[in-house]
Amino acid sequence: MKIQELADRMGLTIHTIRFYEKEGLLDNRHVRRETNNYRNYSEEAVERLKQIKKFQSIGCSLDELKEVLQDHDTNGRTNQQIIEWIRGKKAEIERKKEDYDQMLVTLNWMLEYRTLLINDPQKAQEMMEEWRRGTSATQTNNP
After folding, report:
1. Nearest residue to 94 (alpha-carbon basis) of 59, 126, 124
2. Where are the domains of the chain?
């Protein structure tokens, strides 16, 4: 299949597919050049792009993608090594989740404060004073 058909089928851009090819994520099993120099993609390319999307959805970087796909192609890791990698990735995502949860707490506080400024400025002032007391107490306890 031609690149536009593959892009449409996978919900990707032509640029993205060419980037993956340039980075070595798609190789001669996935794409062949015809005599007119057009790329012709195999069904294996579809499966490879599905794998790439799956690993991107769990936050894999380009370097991680390259490593994971190379290991997949060569059976380069033992099952135990793969389990350890999965555990590490899970721990990384849990840390990020904690960061996002804290961001949401802050945004919710800001939203409540700004809404109170409109609807109840006195209560907004009290909320700000409470926050300042909490912040200075935290700074006093954590030099």
Report:
1. 59
2. 3-59, 96-141
pLDDT of residue 143: 44
Question: Checking phi first, is residue 24 left (phi over 0); if not, alpha (psi -120 to 50) or beta?
Answer: left
- Asked if the 3-59 domain carries CATH number 3.40.50.300, the reply is no
Structure tokens belonging to residue 44 = 């294996």
CA distance 50 to 65: 12
Supply the DSSP string of the chain, one letter for each residue. --HHHHHHHHT--HHHHHHHHHTTSS-TTTEEE-TTS-EEE-HHHHHHHHHHHHHHHTT--HHHHHHHHHHHHHT-S-HHHHHHHHHHHHHHHHHHHHHHHHHHHHHHHHHHHHHHHHH-HHHHHHHHHHHHHHHHHHHHH--
Query: What's the pTM value of the predicted model, to 2 decimals?
Result: 0.72
In whole angstroms, give the CA distance from residue 113 to residue 111: 5
Which of 30-34, 37-41, 133-137, 139-143 is predicted with the least confidence, judged by mean pLDDT? 139-143
